[in-house]
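Translate sequence into structure tokens.
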Amino acid sequence: MKNTTVLVSGAGVAGITLAHWLRRHGCTPTVVERAAGPRDGGYKIDIRGAALRVVERMGLLDQIRAHATGVRSGTVVDGRGRRVASMDGDTFGGRDSGGDGGGGDGGGDAEILRGDLHRLLLEATEGVEFLWGEEIAGLNQAGDHVDVTFAGGATRAFDLVVGADGIHSTTRTMAFGPGDHVRDLGYRVSIFSVPNHLGLDREEITYVSPDHTVLVYSTAREAGAKAMFLFADDTPLPADGRRHLVEHYRDQGWEVPALLSEIGEDFYLDSLSQVHLDHWSTGRIALVGDAAHCASVASGQGTSLALVGAYVLAGELAAAADHTEGFANYQAALREFVATNQKLGPANVRRMVLGSRGQVRVSMALLSLLSRLPGRERLLAKAVAPIHRAANAIDLKDYPVGEVAQ
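Result follows.
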């Protein structure tokens, strides 16, 4: 694979990480991204288990910990704003806060803003060519290479192409066709910035009612706050997402009306969905991250899957005799890990978005009781143990790397 040219579509976590490892293995990656430049901000994300070992091998773990969100506590409230339960931030977020944590440094899981992680990954990928404000318009596999036509009109040939362009991957559609690869879980998620009118100081508050959940939090890294809305809905995504969200939450209590009156410019609305494919490659084109196997936001493992998948794909390509063997070994090494983590999504979202008043009452009563019991952290840790087992459900190979030419 020495000097193999690889076009990576998408400058998200999977794409940038893949470019980093491809370069360290002697390939020549180019990353194409439709956005005009690197994205700042974004929601907070977790790095767990095997993914911690990936960023440690990239030399980024200490910097990631230095950019931690610093969220100290989590609280659940009812429709009147009455506190039902409170706990520390790691317990509330289902994070392993100590021991090995799967990372090998004894620091446990890491929580960081997506924009901060993107910046750190980009800094670790110095020397890679990025085509900002551009995207793939056409792919043609031609024997020993792939002819790529860009939206701007330019054409180039690459030895390999990898789609790292997310759940709605255009690379996947071009290479695999418009098949039924995306499975809607029957829920929607919306995220946006809001003024911190609640005066949160590295805190997270969750409001729960039947079929509706709202989270608001502040971090040590931002002056304002973020709001996240999760709700049951299987209707097609509308053109006017803001109006759709407001309509769904118009009868809700607590601070919901105020939050909906302060929707930020970074408004985001999408379905909670997963991607399922029998194969993650066809010829000289492969997929990685959400484009290949999105587990959904509800899994809590999207970022970790992206980091691990990119590391494994680059390593298996470097270790193989050719790309066909490399792609096959990548899927064989990752398939069970992906399947284990995808199972988390449907189960988690049913606990996050409760379907009836009875479920809400029972859940609130149990949380209230648990928050007052001695040893509650240990009891709650058992509830999130499946996440940590899934996060560590792979034995990462240590792929040898050479010196990178400057």
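Note: The longest strand covers residues 182-194.
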